[in-house]
UniProtKB/TrEMBL annotation:
InterPro entries: LS (IPR034964), LS/RS (IPR002180). (2S)-2-hydroxy-3-oxobutyl phosphate binds at residues 88-89, 129. Pfam families: DMRL_synthase. The gene is ribH. Belongs to the DMRL synthase family. This is 6,7-dimethyl-8-ribityllumazine synthase. Pathway: Cofactor biosynthesis; riboflavin biosynthesis; riboflavin from 2-hydroxy-3-oxobutyl phosphate and 5-amino-6-(D-ribitylamino)uracil: step 1/2. 5-amino-6-(D-ribitylamino)uracil binds at residues 28, 59-61, 83-85, 115. It comes from the Bacteria. The keyword Repeat does not apply.
Amino acid sequence: MASHTQHHQLDLPRFDAPVRLLAVIAPYYKDIAEGLLAGARAVAEGAGASLDVVEVPGALEIPTAVGIAARKANYDGFVALGCVIRGETTHYDTVCNDSSRALTLLGLQGICIGNGILTVENAGQAEVRADPQGQNKGGGAAAAALHLVALTRKWAGRRGPDSLGENHDLIRLAGQLEGQDRA
Protein backbone atom coordinates (compact mmCIF):
# COMPACT_ATOMS: atom_id res chain seq x y z
CA MET A 1 0.00 0.00 0.00
CA ALA A 2 1.39 3.41 -0.98
CA SER A 3 1.88 6.03 1.68
CA HIS A 4 0.39 9.51 1.41
CA THR A 5 3.13 11.01 3.56
CA GLN A 6 4.72 14.12 2.07
CA HIS A 7 8.52 14.02 1.90
CA HIS A 8 10.76 17.08 1.87
CA GLN A 9 13.07 17.30 -1.13
CA LEU A 10 16.14 19.50 -1.14
CA ASP A 11 16.57 21.93 -4.01
CA LEU A 12 19.11 20.73 -6.55
CA PRO A 13 22.58 22.12 -5.93
CA ARG A 14 24.11 24.68 -8.28
CA PHE A 15 27.54 24.12 -9.76
CA ASP A 16 30.21 26.53 -11.02
CA ALA A 17 32.01 23.80 -12.96
CA PRO A 18 30.53 20.98 -15.09
CA VAL A 19 29.41 17.79 -13.37
CA ARG A 20 29.82 14.39 -14.99
CA LEU A 21 27.62 11.56 -13.72
CA LEU A 22 27.60 7.93 -14.74
CA ALA A 23 24.39 5.94 -14.46
CA VAL A 24 25.11 2.24 -13.98
CA ILE A 25 21.91 0.42 -14.80
CA ALA A 26 20.80 -3.21 -14.70
CA PRO A 27 18.02 -3.49 -17.29
CA TYR A 28 16.81 -6.91 -16.09
CA TYR A 29 13.29 -5.44 -15.93
CA LYS A 30 13.57 -3.26 -19.03
CA ASP A 31 10.44 -1.10 -18.56
CA ILE A 32 11.29 -0.39 -14.94
CA ALA A 33 14.90 0.44 -15.85
CA GLU A 34 13.77 2.83 -18.58
CA GLY A 35 11.55 4.71 -16.13
CA LEU A 36 14.36 4.97 -13.58
CA LEU A 37 16.74 6.22 -16.24
CA ALA A 38 14.27 8.80 -17.56
CA GLY A 39 13.89 10.24 -14.07
CA ALA A 40 17.66 10.31 -13.52
CA ARG A 41 18.23 12.02 -16.88
CA ALA A 42 15.66 14.73 -16.16
CA VAL A 43 17.18 15.55 -12.76
CA ALA A 44 20.74 15.54 -14.11
CA GLU A 45 19.71 17.89 -16.93
CA GLY A 46 17.86 20.10 -14.44
CA ALA A 47 21.13 20.56 -12.54
CA GLY A 48 23.16 21.11 -15.72
CA ALA A 49 25.03 17.81 -15.30
CA SER A 50 25.94 15.40 -18.07
CA LEU A 51 24.86 11.77 -17.64
CA ASP A 52 26.55 8.84 -19.34
CA VAL A 53 25.02 5.37 -19.12
CA VAL A 54 26.45 1.85 -18.93
CA GLU A 55 24.50 -1.37 -18.55
CA VAL A 56 25.41 -4.38 -16.44
CA PRO A 57 23.62 -7.75 -16.21
CA GLY A 58 22.10 -7.39 -12.74
CA ALA A 59 21.99 -5.50 -9.45
CA LEU A 60 24.97 -7.38 -8.00
CA GLU A 61 27.20 -6.07 -10.79
CA ILE A 62 26.26 -2.41 -10.26
CA PRO A 63 28.63 -1.76 -7.32
CA THR A 64 31.51 -3.47 -9.11
CA ALA A 65 30.98 -1.31 -12.20
CA VAL A 66 30.79 1.84 -10.03
CA GLY A 67 34.02 0.85 -8.26
CA ILE A 68 35.82 0.21 -11.54
CA ALA A 69 34.60 3.48 -13.04
CA ALA A 70 35.58 5.41 -9.91
CA ARG A 71 39.14 4.10 -10.28
CA LYS A 72 39.50 4.13 -14.06
CA ALA A 73 37.24 6.89 -15.43
CA ASN A 74 36.66 10.57 -14.79
CA TYR A 75 33.22 10.96 -13.20
CA ASP A 76 32.17 13.18 -10.33
CA GLY A 77 29.36 10.90 -9.21
CA PHE A 78 27.37 7.78 -9.93
CA VAL A 79 23.71 6.79 -10.11
CA ALA A 80 22.94 3.12 -9.40
CA LEU A 81 19.71 2.03 -11.12
CA GLY A 82 17.98 -1.32 -11.15
CA CYS A 83 15.18 -3.37 -9.68
CA VAL A 84 14.99 -6.50 -7.56
CA ILE A 85 11.55 -8.08 -7.23
CA ARG A 86 10.98 -10.71 -4.54
CA GLY A 87 10.76 -14.22 -5.91
CA GLU A 88 10.28 -17.65 -4.40
CA THR A 89 13.80 -18.05 -2.99
CA THR A 90 16.16 -16.25 -0.62
CA HIS A 91 18.20 -14.99 -3.59
CA TYR A 92 16.18 -11.76 -3.32
CA ASP A 93 17.59 -11.09 0.17
CA THR A 94 21.14 -11.75 -0.98
CA VAL A 95 20.88 -9.43 -3.99
CA CYS A 96 19.18 -6.63 -2.02
CA ASN A 97 21.52 -6.77 0.95
CA ASP A 98 24.78 -7.28 -0.93
CA SER A 99 24.20 -4.63 -3.60
CA SER A 100 23.14 -2.07 -0.98
CA ARG A 101 26.03 -2.91 1.34
CA ALA A 102 28.56 -2.68 -1.49
CA LEU A 103 27.25 0.73 -2.59
CA THR A 104 27.40 1.95 1.01
CA LEU A 105 31.02 0.81 1.35
CA LEU A 106 31.93 2.62 -1.86
CA GLY A 107 30.23 5.74 -0.56
CA LEU A 108 32.18 5.54 2.69
CA GLN A 109 35.34 5.60 0.58
CA GLY A 110 34.27 9.01 -0.74
CA ILE A 111 32.57 7.98 -3.97
CA CYS A 112 29.44 10.05 -4.63
CA ILE A 113 26.64 7.54 -5.28
CA GLY A 114 22.88 7.82 -5.46
CA ASN A 115 21.24 4.44 -4.85
CA GLY A 116 18.26 3.92 -7.15
CA ILE A 117 18.10 0.13 -6.94
CA LEU A 118 14.48 -0.67 -6.17
CA THR A 119 13.81 -3.57 -3.81
CA VAL A 120 10.13 -4.44 -4.02
CA GLU A 121 7.60 -7.18 -3.45
CA ASN A 122 5.98 -7.02 -6.90
CA ALA A 123 6.06 -5.37 -10.31
CA GLY A 124 3.27 -2.93 -9.41
CA GLN A 125 5.36 -1.44 -6.61
CA ALA A 126 8.32 -1.14 -8.98
CA GLU A 127 6.25 0.63 -11.64
CA VAL A 128 5.04 3.32 -9.21
CA ARG A 129 8.55 3.89 -7.85
CA ALA A 130 10.24 3.98 -11.27
CA ASP A 131 7.71 6.32 -12.92
CA PRO A 132 9.18 9.82 -13.33
CA GLN A 133 5.64 11.17 -12.79
CA GLY A 134 5.18 8.90 -9.78
CA GLN A 135 7.71 8.41 -6.99
CA ASN A 136 10.62 9.05 -9.39
CA LYS A 137 13.23 7.03 -7.51
CA GLY A 138 15.64 7.33 -10.47
CA GLY A 139 15.44 11.11 -10.19
CA GLY A 140 15.90 10.85 -6.44
CA ALA A 141 19.06 8.78 -6.91
CA ALA A 142 20.47 11.34 -9.35
CA ALA A 143 19.65 14.15 -6.91
CA ALA A 144 21.41 12.26 -4.10
CA ALA A 145 24.55 11.85 -6.23
CA LEU A 146 24.46 15.56 -7.14
CA HIS A 147 24.16 16.60 -3.48
CA LEU A 148 27.15 14.43 -2.59
CA VAL A 149 29.17 15.92 -5.45
CA ALA A 150 28.29 19.40 -4.16
CA LEU A 151 29.44 18.47 -0.63
CA THR A 152 32.66 16.97 -1.98
CA ARG A 153 33.42 20.14 -3.91
CA LYS A 154 32.50 22.33 -0.94
CA TRP A 155 34.86 20.49 1.38
CA ALA A 156 37.70 19.86 -1.11
CA GLY A 157 40.99 21.20 0.22
CA ARG A 158 39.47 22.34 3.52
CA ARG A 159 41.26 19.97 5.84
CA GLY A 160 42.39 22.02 8.82
CA PRO A 161 44.72 21.28 11.72
CA ASP A 162 41.96 19.40 13.57
CA SER A 163 41.24 17.03 10.68
CA LEU A 164 42.17 13.38 10.81
CA GLY A 165 44.79 13.65 8.06
CA GLU A 166 46.20 11.08 5.69
CA ASN A 167 47.55 8.65 8.30
CA HIS A 168 44.44 8.53 10.49
CA ASP A 169 41.72 7.04 8.33
CA LEU A 170 38.34 7.08 10.05
CA ILE A 171 37.10 4.03 8.15
CA ARG A 172 39.35 1.05 7.61
CA LEU A 173 38.63 -1.50 4.94
CA ALA A 174 38.64 -5.20 5.76
CA GLY A 175 42.20 -6.49 5.85
CA GLN A 176 43.77 -3.24 7.08
CA LEU A 177 45.52 -3.32 10.44
CA GLU A 178 46.40 -0.38 12.65
CA GLY A 179 49.40 1.33 11.05
CA GLN A 180 49.91 -1.22 8.28
CA ASP A 181 48.16 -2.42 5.14
CA ARG A 182 48.11 -6.00 3.93
CA ALA A 183 49.12 -6.31 0.32
